[in-house]
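Practice problem: predict the structure.
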Amino acid sequence: MNVRQMSAYLGISTDTMYMYASTGLIPSFKLGNRWKFKRSLIDEWMEKQSKESREASDG
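Answer:
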């Protein structure tokens, strides 16, 4: 998926998506000069983030 598709999938702006990708916050890679995202890795990342958030709030 490209930045536009991934930002729509996550419901965030493309600017935020670029920031997340360039800082390594979200799983991504560059193909040439374009950021690419693998949906399955993003889904795994979201599940991990959700689990960590729940554990912190139970804490």
